[in-house]
Amino acid sequence: MNQLRGTLRHYCTALRRWHRSRGFGIHSPFAYRFVSETLRGRPRNRYDYAPLVRLCAGRDAAGPLRHILRRLYRIVAHLRPSHVTVIGHDPQHLMTDTAALIPGGTAARPMLIVTSPPVDTRLLSRTLADEGIIYFTDLRDSELRRAYDTLRTDTTHVMSFTNDREAIMVSRHDLPKQEYRIWLKGH
Fold first, then answer.
1. From residue 64, how far is each of 24, 31, 106, 148, 165 by CA, in Å?
2. Burial tier of 104 (Cβ tally within 10 Å: 0-12, 13-18, 19+)
3. What does each of the 187 residues of the chain score in pLDDT, given as a tens digit?
4. Cα separation of 168 and 161, whole Å?
């Protein structure tokens, strides 16, 4: 029953998510730039995917994983975390290697990529408290969904961007608490 309700909600909010993912209704300059340039990956930004293509050559990185890797590459290039840690399953170390393609930023901003349980919510909370970034790659898992919902309600100064299957949480002291339901390619 919950799965059916989630599926119906996903389809009922599709138009609004599509609208938001184009930047309409987003009034925060940071959120607008993050959605339009980073998450959508507009062609005019011309991200150089050549290193990513070389990295994935000979590895099984097709379908949804390819979209996730390209999105991760753009997020790391835009936000420049100081270090990236993968929690959960990382097939062929693709996510770790993708994040390593971009040199880390100078600010001590950690990034966690959460792919599967178990999840330590204290570590996630500490990451957001340190103005970090958390990328949930599969919210269809009930434990990851529960962790995301807990963080979303218990934290301040966090912007979250989600399509109900993936979520990116960005914490900065100058950001208001806001959740954007958007349309992400690949799902």
1. 26, 24, 31, 21, 11
2. middle
3. 566 665 666 555 555 545 454 455 676 888 888 888 888 766 555 667 788 888 887 777 677 788 888 888 889 888 889 889 999 888 778 888 888 888 877 677 899 999 999 899 999 999 999 999 999 999 999 999 999 999 999 988 899 999 888 999 999 999 889 998 887 765 4
4. 5
- Distance spanning both ends of the chain, measured CA to CA: 22
Asked if the peptide bond before residue 51 counts as cis, ω within 30 degrees of 0, the response is no
Task: Output 119-122 pairs: Cβ under 8 A, ≥24 positions apart.
Answer: 119/87, 119/143, 119/144, 119/147, 120/87, 121/147, 121/150, 121/151
Q: What is the largest CA-CA distance in the chain?
A: 47
Predicted local confidence at residue 103, as pLDDT: 80
Strand segments, DSSP code E, in 88-143 are: 110-114, 133-136
Please state, in angstroms and rounded to a whole number, the distance separating the CA atoms of residues 187 and 178.
Answer: 23
CA distance 28 to 42: 19
How is the chain split into domains, by residue range?
2-181
Rounded-to-integer distance, Cα 94 and Cα 73, Å? 11
> Rounded to the nearest 10 degrees, how much is the dihedral formed by the CA atoms of 66, 72, 138, 156?
-160
Alpha-carbon gap, residue 86 to 141, rounded angstroms: 16
- The per-residue pLDDT for 111 is 93
